[in-house]
Design a protein that fits this description.
With 124 residues, the protein is mainly beta. The chain is built from no helices and eleven strands. The N and C termini lie far apart (37 Å).
Length: 124
């Protein structure tokens, strides 16, 4: 499956962004989907995952009260709504797809396909 992430940009602290991930090439509902991020000088970090049906989500503690992950299987898209952004959210954000049997994996090794990343910069 090919993944295309978009929606990043520069925003002030407290602002919002909505990231999108468009999928093509395979049946989208065969995959659990996730978002990861990588800040300069740091390792890639799991942010959020959603199961194949969109009925369950999992977000890390630092974002769970500010971010929402969702998907639209009819349109082969996934989104990450990011509110109350903080400077520490600055990173390149990647969407990824894993076989649906993994449900909502946080381990990047479970993901077979990755998008190219979109830059999110939050200024203080």
């Amino acid at each position: 499956v090919q993944l295309q992430a978009s929606g990043g940009g520069l925003v002030q602290a407290g602002g919002s962004l909505r990231l999108s991930c468009a999928a093509s090439g395979h049946t989208f509902s065969n995959y659990a989907m996730g978002w990861f991020r990588q800040a300069p000088g740091k390792e890639r970090e799991f942010v959020a995952a959603i199961n194949w049906a969109g009925s369950s989500t999992y977000l890390i503690d630092s974002v769970k009260d500010r971010f929402t992950i969702s998907r639209d299987n009819a349109n082969n898209t996934m989104s990450l709504q990011m509110n109350s952004l903080k400077p520490e959210d600055t990173a390149i954000y990647y969407c990824a797809a894993a076989p649906r049997t993994y449900y909502m994996p946080s381990d990047p090794h479970r993901y077979n396909y990755w998008g190219q990343g979109t830059q999110v910069t939050v200024s203080s």
